[in-house]
Amino acid sequence: MHRYSKNIENIKYLSIATVLFSISWLWLSFTFPLKLALDKMSYQEIGMIGTLTSFPFVIVSFSFRFLGRRALNFAMKAPYVVIALFSTILIFVDNNIFIYVFIIGITGFFQSMWWISVEIETGLIGVEGNAEKYSAAWAIPSGLFPIFSGALLQYVGFNAVYVLVIVTSIIGFLIQPMDSVERRITKKGDLKFILLLPMTFVGIFLGYSSYVLVPFLKNSNYSYLEIGALLAISGIAFALGSIYAGTLKNNNYPKFSWISSLLASSFLLLFISTNYVVISLSLFLGGFGGSFSFSKLLSLIGKSESPRNGVFFYETLFSIGYVSGTLLGGTLLSLYGIDVSLLMFIPSLIYSFIIYFIYLKGSPSFAYVK
User: Fold this and answer.
1) pLDDT at 128 over 80
2) How many other C-beta atoms are found inside a 10 Å radius of the C-beta of residue 106?
3) Cβ distance 246 to 137 under 8 Å?
4) Of 198, 228, 182, nearest in space to 314 by CA
5) Are 290 and 204 within 8 A, CB to CB?
6) Which of 92, 140, 186, 315 is buried deepest, with most CB atoms within 10 A?
7) Other residues' Cβ atoms within 10 Å of the Cβ of residue 95
8) What is the pLDDT of residue 150?
9) 355 HSE (CA, 13 A, CB side)
């Protein structure tokens, strides 16, 4: 008899909770760079603040290597409370930039706890296909709700978004399944870390999208609705890719790494033009490629490494990329313009060539991880 009626081994409850938490966090975090742009902050300043939502992943994933079930259960519940609480505060106090940055930092820290604890639990449970289902569950809101959030901001205002975040957080808190078993930590095999590097490139893509491209679009007189529609393109592509990745049963992980890194460099297309069509294409390609990193590489960790250590490596690489995308991307855009900021996507393209020509094409035995 489980101590909790909704146990995390039930993938349906986990998927519903993942959708709800994704909606809460994605709705709230969508407003961050837009609000900062409204306060006339520079791209560099916005990029620096954006690191507050990603850098905690390194600290939390490292500390969670040593914590047990009770800590993981707390980490899956507390973020709902924190997000609901600070969204309520934002309804009444959102014009003080110091309070606003503090809220970004606190909510950014607690949301990292949720993702990391669920990813560790997914690995500990060890059910084939759960990583892909988890990725698809949070990918779907990322595709549908940016445009909805953009419409709310356009026609109602920020407070409408905060209210909906509060409601979904409360529902998520009630539905969130817990773990009733203290699971053993086991290492299953050697993890080829080179295959995880696309997490860094995907992190750069997402960090740049959220805290560099969004304020750039806002300052270029794009409406909230148009910005939401553009981010929805990336989210829809991510959702489609996650669903597709869930149907693939082979374990050609270098191929998934190659696809992710190649498509994560898609912002290089903005050298051609920064019009709506090219931006849309770049976001679609990057979102689709990113889905393979989040689903298949998480699955690889579950097969090759103890979940706690694996998630630490996985999230650290992602966080390094995200921080680079926000901070370096924002700094380069502030100092030198959009074209120079795009140079940071070249390493992703180079890596994709290395994986393809050396490992995939030149050494077939490397292409499969048993």
Assistant:
1) no
2) 16
3) no
4) 198
5) no
6) 315
7) 10
8) 86
9) 25
What the block records as the tokens of 109 is: 């820290």
Q: What is the mean pLDDT of residues 260-266?
A: 93
Q: How far apart are CA 154 and CA 223, in angstroms?
A: 7
Rounded CA separation 158/37 (Å): 14
H-type helices in 39-157, by residue range? Answer: 43-50, 56-63, 69-92, 97-125, 130-155
Tell me the two tokens of residue 68: 């047990």
pLDDT above 50 for 365: no
pTM across the whole model: 0.86
The tens digit of pLDDT for each residue in 226-253 reads 999 999 898 889 888 877 877 776 667 7
Predicted pLDDT at 295: 73
Specify the residue for token string 């993702």.
Answer: 115
Residue that the structure tokens 């909704």 belong to: 6
Phi/psi at 102 (nearest 5 deg)? -60, -45
Tally of helices (H runs) and strands (E runs) in the chain? 17, 0
In sequence order, which residues have a C-beta less than 8 Å from that of residue 299 and are 6 or more positions away? Answer: 131, 132
Q: Are 234 and 281 in contact (CB under 8 A)?
A: no
Asked if residues 167 and 48 have their Cβ atoms less than 8 Å apart, the reply is no
- Band of the pLDDT at 207, cuts 50, 70, 90? very high
pLDDT class of 172 with cuts at 50, 70, 90 = very high
Give buried/exposed letters for 25-47 (b at 16+ CB in 10 A, else e).
bbbbbbbbbbbbbeeebbbbbbb
Q: Which of 36, 17, 123 is nearest to 79 (CA)?
A: 17
Say if CB 168 and CB 24 are below 8 A apart: yes
Per DSSP, the residues of 288-341 read: HHHHHIIIIIHHHHHHHS-HHHHHHHHHHHHHHHHHIIIIIHHHHHHHH-HHHH
Report which DSSP code applies to 189.
Answer: S
**For the packed helices 224-247 and 130-155, what is the interaxial angle rounded to 10 degrees?**
170
- The whole-number pLDDT of residue 197 equals 84
